[in-house]
Amino acid sequence: MRLSGSVFDANQHGCPKCDGRGYVSFNWQMAQERKGHAIDKYPKYLRLERALKFGFQYGCPVCSTKWFLDDFSKLISIIPESRLVIFEEWNNRELYLSEEMLAIANSIGATPPDVYGNGGHLVEVPCEVLTRTGEIFERAILSFQKNPPINFGDADVRLIDSIEQVRPSKFSLSREVRYATAQASEIRMCFSPTLVKSSEGDIYVLNGVTNFIWESDLEGEEFSVFDGGGTKNSRDAIQDINAITYFVGDWFPHAEHLRIV
Ligand SMILES: [Zn+2]
Question: Closest by alpha carbon to 151, among 87, 91, 208?
Answer without folding.
Answer: 87
